[in-house]
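Continuing the batch. This is chain 6 of the set; chains 1 through 5 are on the previous pages. Same settings as before, nothing changed between runs. Recording input and output for traceability.
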Amino acid sequence: MGSSSSWRRRMGNVRSFVGNSMGGLRGAPNLASWVVAGTLAYFLWVKPSQDLKRERQERAALAAASDPYRYVEKRKPIPDPQETGLIYGNKNRTNKPPED
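Output for chain 6:
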């Protein structure tokens, strides 16, 4: 029976430590203070960053829509397998005919 009472005492100590670390408030005042703190954090940090991100996306969309002829690379170009790199032909051939 001695071990169960020490376990309960330890749990009580942990609960009181957590309660004291959160300001010592219990019940409704504790909940109300957390709601106020969360609301303040949302309006001071979260909402401004979301608004800024949304504004940047809108500005980028407007910039993209304002110039319909703007070139946008959609895929990587395929390299030309010819030696000179010209699509029209291979004019500078260095291959010599085989000598007998």
